Amino acid sequence: SKELGELVGKVKEALESNAARRKPKIAKGARDFMPEQMAIREKAFATITAVFKRHGAVSLDTPVFELRETLTGKYGEDSKLIYDLADQGGEILSLRYDLTVPFARYVAMHNIAKMKRYHIARVYRRDQPQMARGRYREFYQCDFDIAGEYAPMVPDAEVLKVSTEILDDLKIGDYEIKLNHRKLLDAMLDICGVPAEKFRPICSAIDKLDKEDWADVRAEMVDDKGLAPEAADKIEPFVRLKGEPLALLQELQGPSSGFSGHAAAQEALADLALLFEYLGAMGALKRISFDLSLARGLDYYTGVIYEAVFKGASQVGSIAAGGRYDGLVGMFSGKNVPAVGVSLGIERVFAIMEEQARAEAERAKTTLRKTQTEVLVASIGPNLLIKRMELCTRLWEAGVKAEFLAQPKPNMDKQLTYALEEGIPFMVIFGETELAQGIVAIKDLKAGVQENVKEGELVAELRKRLSTQQA
Amino acid sequence: SKELGELVGKVKEALESNAARRKPKIAKGARDFMPEQMAIREKAFATITAVFKRHGAVSLDTPVFELRETLTGKYGEDSKLIYDLADQGGEILSLRYDLTVPFARYVAMHNIAKMKRYHIARVYRRDQPQMARGRYREFYQCDFDIAGEYAPMVPDAEVLKVSTEILDDLKIGDYEIKLNHRKLLDAMLDICGVPAEKFRPICSAIDKLDKEDWADVRAEMVDDKGLAPEAADKIEPFVRLKGEPLALLQELQGPSSGFSGHAAAQEALADLALLFEYLGAMGALKRISFDLSLARGLDYYTGVIYEAVFKGASQVGSIAAGGRYDGLVGMFSGKNVPAVGVSLGIERVFAIMEEQARAEAERAKTTLRKTQTEVLVASIGPNLLIKRMELCTRLWEAGVKAEFLAQPKPNMDKQLTYALEEGIPFMVIFGETELAQGIVAIKDLKAGVQENVKEGELVAELRKRLSTQQA
């Protein structure tokens, strides 16, 4: 019956296997990154990582799965989107939903007092994918967070500064950062007569104002969420307030503002005054729009909240978002470590950069390169495969990126076509005649120039040309 | 009853949540990468990626999960180690077990005829973790594969050449690459009288010869796997054959060799003759040990197989392995695309490099750096936070990696200690006095020299010092 068990196992495997029966598929909402896309992705990551490193951030990586209990109770209504692993005996695990909760778990578990870290990795949401709009079930996030006790609003200012540097350096279009304060939002709701237990649901209604009219949002508040119509009507003038940070701040600090005399609101306004001063010193204030309609859904924010959005008609939507979350680490360890961070929605960045690269390649009539190969080692005539290998090896050893065609006797047309299609800038060409004379030709495909050099000087000659080209 | 459902949900969440009740945990067999480890990991990845790019490989990325049917029937006995996702409605998914099967799925799905690609990513195995020995349930692999029709043995030679370049460039110790041919192995078993249906089980017994005595392996063959004792005894002299590739090849090609007259064996030996010639041309033959006891467990190998192992007593075990698998793509699409590749077990590389870095830091009495920060902007006296921010911003804008302490009035001791602990090479120091004179001091912490420069020339002066230091 051990044999019977094995037989049943084999039949089951054969039935479950898709071997040779149909086209293989990829999981819904997931995608392969093609080589051209990977080249762009690597460029984006390098740009972003350079900003993080410029600010002295350390790099951190956490597992793709966490104990389910780590994720439970952190995402409100969105918890239903968490991917669970099957119970195969042992622990109950889920795929990470974002990078913030694993970071908080890390800080709590390793007893970290202070940390400025970045993390670029994939997260998982069992959402309805809309791949044409860049919404996947598996997607990258780039997170930057500062945890620990520091002078008030200094880390908040640096997180915002980092966000502007990244969006500037990526060169993907004009943007602004909408900014609000969770405590100011709560004060506003309090002043308007919203009962405390309705704060979060009313916030998620307000958060839709970037996509919906006030009438629709009001209907959601009153009809769906049971808010008194008078309270809803009082909210409207508040959430219409937005604009240049210092001007709006001054207005809200004034005696005729609705916030006058509300202690929590005054605290939030004092926070913002300090933040705006720091952002001014860092040259980032010009990117900020103080916006009382920004509410953000997540439960764990406790202070400043923000969201970067593209300006103009062509590119819409949020590209980065974050805020202060002083209570999250304490949910794990019982000991609070205040923290503030931002998460960049890099998938949209990829899409924009791909579009830009395609347009640029078309304009310049060049190839979108997949590799970084600098030299194709090519030969004329038969029996030269070994010699191509030897020359290529010499180039590899000198750190030159080189290829040869893995065919016994490729003709010159084929080799030239390959170099042009792949955008390889140089070819090394030789036949029996050249070898007998101890020379090889270097062909510069961009300049269309071909020169003979001594075989022994090939590496030096190529290096000279490659460094000129890069300069 | 909607409300009741919500209440039940909330109670369930509260019960499942670990909020503030106990120390948070990480999943068994997984680990966080600490900042010091990340710095080393990034260095290793950069070294490895440079080799791949030098060989004209493209980069590819696939999702962390695949349809379960994609993985089914590919891993033999090890299939039980696959992590499954929970069935939450929709597709049945599993976490990837390696990077080879997703690559084959990719080649089949996108109808790729030729591709030389690398992929550095995590894979998942629900094995008994032995973390002290570097065995995790989530771990990195670095894969390099060449798919497509090429001149025989040329891609095989390049994959082995790439393996040697990586192991050389990583500088982690002396190694050799054991090499065999699946067809030669099958011929050997055939010649010894092993029935065809026992080839794979007997192979997995042979594969243990690097850890076990012949007596134990023989016992497994005869007692557990039901092989005739005479057959087992015939295998012994074969699997003792190992050594310098060309010498052993010549011996096996000779008329007195056991393989004489066996057609499949002669084909395999012809393959190896060609491979060794190419490896000679590429300067990689000296790393190879032709070893008839190398068997490798996986079902999908069809040609050359190899495994890189450390030499010497201190570091044992396999560090890279691979082979030719001409049938795997066809299992998905029905259309075969031959392929050959190697997978580097990078976790062991990390462990060795960490050990080296610690020893080096201890020897040189330096800090194991977590960041790349070049300058700490420090001030003397109160009310200079804004000025520190402004100077730091100027450095960031110039591309200099700079930090300041996020405190209103940090004392000089604290700032100096921070710079020393973090290994930051330079400090910019100023107080009210210096500002009034339009100067700031640059302190070179390594040289112990401090010089005043004009504030307006700070960036240029720092750049000069930073470039000298790097040279």
Report on the structure:
The structure is a homodimer of 471-residue chains. With 471 residues, chain A is α+β, with helices and mostly antiparallel strands. Chain A folds into 2 domains: 324 residues, BirA Bifunctional Protein, domain 2 (2-Layer Sandwich); 96 residues, Rossmann fold. Chain A is 43% helix and 18% strand. The first copy, chain A, has 17 helices and 16 strands. In chain A, the strands form 3 sheets. In chain A, strands 1-4-5-11-10-9-6-8-7 form a 9-stranded mixed β-sheet. In chain A, helix 14 links the parallel strand 12 and strand 13. Chain A is elongated and about 95 Å long. The mean pLDDT of chain A is 91. Chains A and B meet through helix 1, helix 2, strand 1, strand 2 and helix 3 of A and helix 1, helix 2, strand 1, strand 2 and helix 3 of B.
Could you report the average pLDDT of chain A, rounded to the nearest whole number?
Answer: 91
Distance between the termini of chain A: 72 Å
The H-level CATH homologous superfamily of the largest domain in chain A, spelled out, is Bira Bifunctional Protein, Domain 2
Content of β-strand of chain A: 15-25%
List keywords for this structure.
homodimer, 471 residues, alpha+beta, BirA Bifunctional Protein, domain 2, Rossmann fold, 2 domains, five-stranded mixed beta sheet
State the gist of this model.
The structure is a homodimer of 471-residue chains. Chain A is an alpha+beta fold and 471 residues long. Chain A has 17 helices and 16 strands.
